[in-house]
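Forum: Protein Structure Q&A
Topic: Joint prediction for protein chains with partners

I've read a bunch of threads here and the consensus seems to be that you should model interacting components together rather than docking separate models afterwards. I'd like to see that in practice. Below is the full input, 817 residues plus whatever partners are listed. Could one of the regulars post the assembled result?
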Amino acid sequence: MVSEVRDGYDPSAVEAKWQRIWDERRTNLFTLEELRGAKDPYYNLMMFPYPSAEGLHVGNIYAFTGADVHGRYQRLRGRTVFEPMGFDAFGIHSENFALKVGKHPMDLIPSNVANFTRQLRRIGGMFDWEHSVDTTDPAYYKWTQWVFVQLFEAGLAERKEAPVNWCPSCMTVLANEQVIGGECERCGTPVEQRRIAQWFFKITRYAERLLENLTRIDWSEKTKKAQTNWIGRSEGALLRFPVVDGKGRETGVVIEAYTTRPDTVFGATYMVLSPEHPLVEKVMNPGLSAPVYAYRDKARQKDLVARQKVDKTKTGVSTGGYVRNPATGKPIPIWIADYVLMGYGTGAIMAVPGHDQRDFEFAEQFELPIVRVVAGPGQDADTPLDQAYDGPGSLVNSGQFDELDWREGARRITQWAAENGWGEPQINYRLHDWCISRQRYWGPPIPIIYCDACGPVAVPEKDLPVVLPRVEDFRPDSSGVSPLARVESWYRTKCPKCAKAARRETDVSDTFLDSGWYFLRYPSTDFDDRPFDRQVTKKWLPVDTYIGGHEHAVLHLLYSRFITMALHDLGHLDFEEPYDVFRAHGLIIAEGAKMSKSKGNVVVPDPVIEQYGADTLRTYLMFLGPFEEGGDYRQDGIQGPFGFLHRLWETVLSAGAGEPDPDVERKVHQTIRQVTEQIPTLQYNTAIAALMECLNTIRAGGRSAARAEVEPLVPMLAPFAPHIAEELWERLGHEGSIFDAANWPAYDEAKAAETRMTIAVQVNGKLRGSIAVPKGAAEADVVAAARADENVRRYLDGSKERKVIYVKERLVNFVVG
Ligand SMILES: [Zn+2]
Ligand SMILES: [Zn+2]
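Posted by a regular:
Agreed with the consensus. Here's the joint model:
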């Protein structure tokens, strides 16, 4: 053993050796038989990357390493861990980059994927490269198209014309989830509104279940909360307001409005329609058509999100028409305003300026009446309103409902409306259907064929995939159709039903459909004739733990839940929630600032790995802070973990055979207990700190370690620094990979128990030292030990000791004078 110490720690040699051995021994690879027969399977999933041309930065490495640590830990506990990795390579990101550099994405993506693969191998992830996916591979997107067809045939995919967000720079529509503060999430261009026929997935049909299941799944709280808010369930009432003419006679036209506050209907003093509301023409005074149409045209230019901004100045015009408020019986004017959207509720609202701030501001601006119908504490029916009051209270100015508590009032008024035929209770959701079409090139063609006789027909499974043709001019244009619409030879086809001439859908699908089901594909990539094998899927899914970015809370994480639920309902899956556990990791910054290309502070892993090794980088990243919170990457900080690995190497290889020191052994068992508790809860930073501290105890005062003291540190370090752990494990004389068996050390509660107590020592009431003595030590022994403490002695020497006070097991105080 001792002779090997001279052989110093050389990370690149150790890492190259073990990566080669892992490949040779297929340490991380599964055959189909192994997947089928796995004992105690554990599916450890992380979010697959979009393979950019720049390669991975340390922020990506951080996320993957944290997930890999989790998988490796499970494996050391004896689970059979499947940890796949793939590439989310379709989409506008890739396409825009290809356009920028003047290359074809079909040429660019393979080299990006190769570079990512090289980097991911180099960091030592436990990836099963034989079960990888690339969403741009026809063998993969064949099944993405199959998913579309399943949903289409189940009536869950629908083509309709709708106002949508249009990014004039990306020249495509965006889902609302992709519009951030009125701007395109990709390029930051202000988003416009367009009406285009689009394919939608009816995710709204699943709103209640998507919400309900959140109470049963073990996910990061903030992610569940984001989904809850996004789904936006509200309970209220649908009320019907009859349109009346100038003489107060009903015209037969009725406007429906959804409200969460039916208790305030007596305070509805006007009604607002979305400018696009189909009844605008029917209710407006023809003399006002010019300003109404002008306003409507202007509203169409604005994007849907910006229109809802709370702080913007209210705009609107009167239609000159009236409805009767069915509660008060009085006519109230109908306005149009862009803050009311057609896509939400009914596209019409009853405006209650007394109790809704947006309505209040609108009413002030256009001098519409404001009536109080809820009185809060200390208010009554006549208390003036200088802003909307939206708190609790009792009803006022509300006829027979006066004095009722507002909640009870809402119930009673809804009931009254139902009895009189002008309303009923209703539950609404903020969630809207998922717009799935993109007028771009770089995606899987939507597998639909339009036939004049048969309408839209799904491409039969035997004809899938609909291969994306190589088109040299793949630039999008502002026509609102995909570049594929310029390739007549491709889109001209025959109807699968009647064989007449027909035309392919030329839009491609949203990249979030590619990632909506990829976790189903990984364990089944051995099968070309089915998207996922029933038996393998049953064995491995749902995913045991999914670790990824919180920024995907309402996009990927919601969509993939929906796809899973839909496939479950169609009989393809036995479960309806894809991920048992989801944990959102934190984000890292560099030298105190957010990493960004423009700031030039993006940390690239390759040179760091070259200098220090992947194990040191991994350990350092996990040491930066709590994994779920992130941390600050500082160049000089890596020295700590680097030195730690060197010291561990030296200590393990110079360890002798002797009996462990009882104090050191206790520390080791306490460390095992702590690390065993903290790794599963992703408290990696404190687990690593405990390992460092334990090694310091083992090496304290330059003593040479016993093998039994230091050996347990090797498997505990293995999730963070797998290569060095393998090497040390081998040098300790073990056969095979450290990850091949349940090599996690066990701790002995009795050995971990503290047998010493810490006693504070004071001189004249001032703390001068602290001593550790065996538990249950006699008072005389404690006092003697206290008196012997070096620092305490300095204060005692030359003084006369008058009294010694001993507080049992806590404190010794010498009174001197
Ligand atoms: Zn854009
Ligand atoms: Zn046909």
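The longest strand covers residues 157-167.
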